[in-house]
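Appendix B. Raw example, untouched.
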Amino acid sequence: MQSSCLRAHFYSLCLVFGSTLFTSLAFADAASDLTAKGEVNVNDQRPRLPEVAANSPSGVFGDKRQLTISSDAGLSISNTSTSGIDGSTTQVTLRPAVDYFVVNNVSVGGFIGLDYTSISGNSMSGGHTSTFAIGPRAGYNFAFSERFSFWPKLGFSYSTSSTSVDTTATNASGSHLALNIFAPVMFHPVKHFFLGFGPALDTDLTGDAKQTTIAGRLTIGGWL
């Protein structure tokens, strides 16, 4: 029941964010109040947000025609012991991405995802699962201090996965269409470089065995 309620809550957030984002994409232009940046304070047209100097690392991020290159990556290695059975699990997630700001603060782009999970042990069944995903996304950047901004992104992806079990020598594969949300708080220590961390949601929309992943994700990259 809690899982269903949590998933329903995320879907509601998806609908609200998606509606706001794609409405902005449909009507945004360089002269729009929502996307124009002030010469001194980038939030001149958005008085509810804190003042941010236009020449600060956060203030210049998200300018029209900027190209960003980043990687949303995670690495988890854990050792487990259950009822005297020792084993280890290694999980690696890589998501290189490219985003382009079509107008101030509004970005469109795409990413490629690779997820690999390996389970091994002396007396337990081992195997590995690999997933490859690719898809488009769109985002909107909000600067709220001279070195911090909020850059949520919404996208869709098509993925293929393959699972292999060592003990039974069996293989299984499948494909899914998924909804992807990533909402990191961005840290801009200097111009042209950023770090970010925030919640991420990946949920399958198609496929026989739908999966939903909720996690914290790190992003690191720069812009040109």
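End of appendix B.
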